Amino acid sequence: MAIEQTLIERLGDELYEAFAAGVTIPNLRDRVEGITIVDAYHIQACMVQRRLAAGETVLGKKIGVTSRAVQQAIGVFEPDFGILTSAMAYPDGAEIPMETLIQPKAEAEIGFVLKHDLKGPGITPADVLAATDHVRACFEIVDSRIDDWDIRIQDTVADNASCGVYVLGEDKVDPRDVDLALAGMVAMRNGEVVVTGAGAAVQGSPVNAVAWLANTLGRLGMPFLAGEVILSGALGPMFPVEPGDQLAMKVGGIGSCSVRFSGEKADA
Predict the structure, then answer these.
(1) SS3 for 81?
(2) What digits encode the pLDDT tens for the residues 184-199?
(3) Is residue 180 part of a domain?
(4) Which is it for strands 132-142 and 105-114: parallel, antiparallel or unpaired?
């Protein structure tokens, strides 16, 4: 049984206000009896609407919870999605102010940029490739407004899939020119390798994840639009970042991406 609209709106406001103030709140699942994933998406929509009302615009979508290990950890067996806005986008090599984040973690991903609308249901991986202008290496800096990252699927969905900010690399590659499932990834923090992975970690291939989301959104009447960015999911485990950190990553056959965070390292 769905929770009441007034409660959905109140929780959406609570999450937005936590984002705006740079603070966290207790998880939702322990406070709202019977909260469902559908409820959580309605809460997400309210939170995102507050951001749009404040002047942000929609740039695309992100796919989360794509690895089996993460799905098992938070008790769900399909990915989730969130909305990317203009305030989340940073250029390659940018410095991100740490004070704009709460408890950030980094994920190395492949970003898709569309040249044609993609309207599900019925979208196949081949349709995704045909609609994609190019792919790029990408860092997604996820961030949770939930205390201590104490999340299950309802919590992260309501919190806009734990969207923080993202950085797209400058290299642009036609996805038909590279085997995305076999594309290897190496991510470094302060010059040391911290994560490796491959495209196959994302639903067998990032293309499969994008097709899944196109079909999921299609059933909700939400198309992907030409020009939108789609973050397809982490190629390896996420890892925490701290003030002063410098991150770099490379995806074989696609390109590289880097980002740094303001402030001094604690051990400096």
Answers:
(1) strand
(2) 999 999 999 999 999 9
(3) yes
(4) antiparallel
3-state secondary structure of 256: strand
Q: pTM, whole model, 2 decimals?
A: 0.94
Q: What is the CA 124 to chain-centroid distance, rounded?
A: 21
Which amino acid is located at 24 in the chain? Answer: T
Burial 229-248 (b: 16+ CB within 10 A, else e): bbbbbbbbbbeebeebbbbb
pLDDT tens, 40-99? 999 999 999 999 999 999 999 999 877 665 666 666 667 889 999 999 999 999 999 999
Instruction: Answer whether residue 32 is part of any domain.
Output: yes
Interatomic CA distance for residues 103 and 81, integer angstroms: 20
Contact 127, 211 (CB under 8 A): yes
Per-residue pLDDT tens digits for 149-185 = 999 989 999 999 999 999 999 999 999 999 999 999 9
Cβ–Cβ < 8 Å for 173, 136: yes
Burial track 160-195 (b if 16+ CB lie within 10 A, e otherwise)? bbbbbbbbbbebebebeebebbebebbbbbeeeebb
Query: What is the rounded distance in angstroms from the CA atom of residue 255 to the CA atom of residue 207?
Result: 17
Pairwise CA distance, residues 38 & 157, whole Å: 9
> For residue 148, is it within any domain?
yes
Indicate which CATH number applies to the domain containing 82. 3.90.850.10
Q: Which domain holds residue 108?
A: 5-261
